[in-house]
Specification:
173 residues, alpha/beta, six-stranded mixed sheet, 38% helix, 19% strand, globular
Amino acid sequence: MSEGKTYTIHKSKKSQADRILEARESLRKSLESIAHRLELVREINGVQYYNDSKSVDLLSTRDSFKCIMKPIVWIAAATTHDRDYALIEKYVKYKIKHVVVYGLGSDDMHRKLDNMVDGFNTSINLKQAVELAKEFSSEGDAVLFSPSCSPTDEYRNFADRGAAFFHFVNDMI
């Protein structure tokens, strides 16, 4: 070593994985602080049921997918509006176990997502969707109610829709 020069050893920087995990945790905490966003309704037979009824677009739903670290049974709402499923494709492939869509107009969603998941079912209403999600989930899974579209069904708004989901889940016990 030359005299007069100071050498320092830098502490190791956080790995990219650590930064991703911290960002995910920060996002989860942020979402959980908003009513009807990633709310844990309850756990039944080892399955966690999340109310994410405020997710009214695919980007919001994608954020919720990022936060749940378990296989997901996703309950979505049907819509007649065109949606760009490429926004969620990689999450659907790797995190979603089963999709249950309720309402009319699920053909486009079925066509674009069915080959990416183990199962895809449709139901006529949210109550039936919750029952199907229970059937297709198993211990260690999460059921995520994240409609990914604005309410065009029998519910007035996301809060009304989320309250209905909460009620249907609690009726299962």
